Amino acid sequence: MKRLLVDMDDVLADATGQFLNFYEKEFGVRISREALNHKDELEGFPDNHEALRSFVFRKDFFRTMAVNENSQEVMRRLNERYEVFIVSSAMEFPNSLSEKFEWLNEHFPFLHWKQFVFCGHKSVVHGDFMIDDLPHNLEAFKGEKLLFSAPHNLQFNHFKRVNDWKEVERMFLG
């Protein structure tokens, strides 16, 4: 069985939307998702980068992210045909590990906890395919690299791209 590694933030979960929501609540300024296109993760926001970075240290930042459209249905089917692992960086922020674990258990209950790999750097994992939104996570990966579209990576074109979960479904499930 082929091994498929799937990132959580901005692949399964809408981390970009969470930043936008927290930013609007904190500063009363609504920023469109499109305003972030082709920019580094913090670049699309006004000069409140320290405040923006502080969001990931807050309780419930990771726990309350929205689920990306179609990810649950497609992941359920992928899990039947592939050896699936969720691989997520979860060591940097104090609440990240427990909140990501709870989030995955709630939204992807068909996955076993043994399918969750929380790490500091993704270069330690191996598989046949990896889906991630951050190009630097794909660079050291030895298998097939798939860049999941997010506003902060639209300027990159050196990896095969998947734009949404329907594309993932067509690619892996026909």
Could you explain the architecture of this structure?
The protein has 174 residues and is an alpha/beta fold. It has a single domain, classed as HAD superfamily/HAD-like (Rossmann fold, 3-Layer(aba) Sandwich). It is built from 6 helices and 6 strands; from the N terminus they run E-H-H-H-E-H-E-E-H-E-E-H. A 6-stranded parallel beta sheet has the order 3-2-1-4-5-6. The chain is globular and about 50 Å long. The mean pLDDT is 95.
Q: Which regions are unreliable across 5 or more consecutive residues at pLDDT < 50?
A: none
* Total of DSSP H or I helical runs spanning 4+ residues: 6
Radius of gyration: 16 Å
Please tell me the overall pLDDT.
95
Proportion in helices? 25-40%
Percent of sequence in beta strands: 15-25%
Q: Biggest β-sheet, characterized?
A: 6 strands, parallel
N-to-C order of helices and strands: EHHHEHEEHEEH
Beta strands, count: 6
Assign the CATH topology: Rossmann fold
Decide which structural class fits the backbone: alpha/beta
